[in-house]
């Protein structure tokens, strides 16, 4: 009877120890994932560290690496060829991705990758124009909408610049007119105004 009870106790202890070991292992894995996520997304992570991490990272971490502004163009070129479409999309969205790599992604077999490229307003217009003729109607439509958005922003920027130039020119014209009418420099008038204001404040 004692042997049976002893064996049951030993088995219970072994099971408990195994459970604790599994729990600790799971915690270590979670801690490692959190650590990798922090490294992959940090703006302070150096390009060579991202390169080293990418050699053993999961697709989820690789996607984060591809989105890091410190990711080197050479690594982005590699990630743009990764089997995971999400990793390739992230590489396409990075502003450090080379033009050559972007053109490769234009021909990507996955329509989701091309769609992700087509909705990126920061990529060169020749690439958007190429995507606007994509065989997939959703990709082509998305590219056309992005082109329209880029052109609209450009028009607003141009109008804003023209308005600023007009205001600056009009201000100079009015100042010159004021000088001609009063014979005084506008800066002199401003100085007198503040001097009178100071004297008035002291009198109060």
Write structural notes for this entry.
- This protein is mostly helical.
- It has two domains: 65 residues, no CATH class; 91 residues, no CATH class.
- Helices cover 78% and strands 0% of the residues.
- It contains ten helices and no strands.
- Helix 1 runs parallel beside helix 3, helix 3 runs parallel beside helix 5 and helix 5 runs parallel beside helix 7.
- The longest helix is centred in the C-terminal third of the chain and has 46 residues.
- The model has no long low-confidence stretch (mean pLDDT 80).
Please specify the SSE layout and strand pairing:
Elements: H1 2-41, H2 47-54, H3 59-66, H4 73-79, H5 85-93, H6 99-106, H7 111-118, H8 125-131, H9 137-182, H10 186-203
Task: Identify the notable features of this structure and list them briefly.
204 residues; mainly alpha; elongated
Through-space gap between termini: 106 Å
The total of helices stands at 10
Which class of secondary structure composition applies to the elements? mainly alpha
What is the 3D form? elongated
Determine the strand fraction and express it as a percent band. under 5%
> Largest sheet, described in full?
none
- Number of structurally distinct domains: 2
Order of helices and strands: HHHHHHHHHH
Low-confidence stretches: none
Average pLDDT, all residues: 80
Radius of gyration: 32 Å
Helix content: over 70%
* Number of beta-strand segments: 0
């Amino acid at each position: 009877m004692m042997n049976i009870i002893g064996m049951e106790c030993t088995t219970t202890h072994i099971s408990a120890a195994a459970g604790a070991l599994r729990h600790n292992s799971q915690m270590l894995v979670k801690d490692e994932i959190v650590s990798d996520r922090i490294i992959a997304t940090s703006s302070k992570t150096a390009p060579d560290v991202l390169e080293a991490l990418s050699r053993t990272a999961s697709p989820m971490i690789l996607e984060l690496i591809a989105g890091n502004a410190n990711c080197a163009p050479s690594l982005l070129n590699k990630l743009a060829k990764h089997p995971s479409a999400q990793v390739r999309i992230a590489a396409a969205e990075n502003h450090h991705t080379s033009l050559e790599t972007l053109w490769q992604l234009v021909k990507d077999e996955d329509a989701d990758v091309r769609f992700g490229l087509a909705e990126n307003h920061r990529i060169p217009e020749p690439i958007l124009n190429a995507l606007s003729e994509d065989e997939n109607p959703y990709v082509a439509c998305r590219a056309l909408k992005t082109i329209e958005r880029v052109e609209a922003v450009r028009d607003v920027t141009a109008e804003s610049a023209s308005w600023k130039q007009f205001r600056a020119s009009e201000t100079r014209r009015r100042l010159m007119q004021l000088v001609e009418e009063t014979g005084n420099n506008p800066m002199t008038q401003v100085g007198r105004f503040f001097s009178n204001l100071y004297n008035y404040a002291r009198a109060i």
